[in-house]
Design brief:
The chain has 182 residues and is α+β, with helices and mostly antiparallel strands. It is built from four helices and ten strands. A six-stranded antiparallel sheet has the order 4-5-9-8-7-6. A four-stranded mixed sheet has the order 1-10-2-3, with no helix packed on it.
Length: 182
């Protein structure tokens, strides 16, 4: 009984420490990253140097971020722009295809650049799903669900972990006032 109580107390402590950690935000950049023209291959150590610990866990170890977290709230507030892979910079989605699926994760009905988004069968967790990955660097992005009845041009939902995305807002061309010559 003492072992069980100790195990329970340890588990409770671990959960409380995890929930106290600061939540990361989705990367945002005012310039589009350089997009890869060929497959991006790096060692685990190289990925760890360029990704945060949470990005590495999700993108390289097929993890999932917490639903309804800071990244999701940030995603919902973002306006017009493009979403790139946080690992390699490949353009994956745009705000034109995003919608609120009320699922707690960023959702898109179609990838903006289909050549940069790949899918494959995922049999983990005792079920068959469709995993979504970056076609350039094989980063795990999330899962694709079809036939859920969303009122979108395609009845499908790319349910994506926002932590593995980099948002680049569209730039609004500002008209410069002509400079007066003295």
């Amino acid at each position: 009984m003492k072992k069980l109580n100790h195990l329970f107390a340890t588990l409770l402590l671990a959960l409380s420490l995890t929930s106290c950690q600061a939540e990361e935000a989705m990367e945002t950049s005012n310039t589009a990253p350089k997009e890869p023209t060929k497959k991006v291959v790096k060692t685990e150590a190289e990925w760890k140097k360029i990704l945060t610990a949470e990005q590495f866990r999700v993108a390289r170890k097929s993890g999932t971020e917490r639903p309804n977290g800071a990244v999701y709230k940030q995603f919902k507030a973002q306006e017009s722009g493009a979403y790139h892979c946080a690992g390699c910079g490949a353009k994956l989605f745009t705000s034109k295809e995003k919608f609120d699926a009320h699922c707690g994760w960023p959702a898109f009905y179609d990838p903006a650049n289909a050549e940069n988004v790949a899918t494959k069968e995922d049999r983990s967790l005792g079920t068959v799903r469709t995993e979504v990955t970056c076609a350039k660097c094989d980063a795990h992005l999330g899962h694709l669900f079809k036939g859920e009845g969303f009122n979108t041009p395609k009845d499908q939902r790319y349910c994506i972990n926002g932590i593995v995305l980099k948002f680049v807002p569209d730039k609004v061309a500002e008209k410069e006032e002509p400079k007066k010559i003295k």
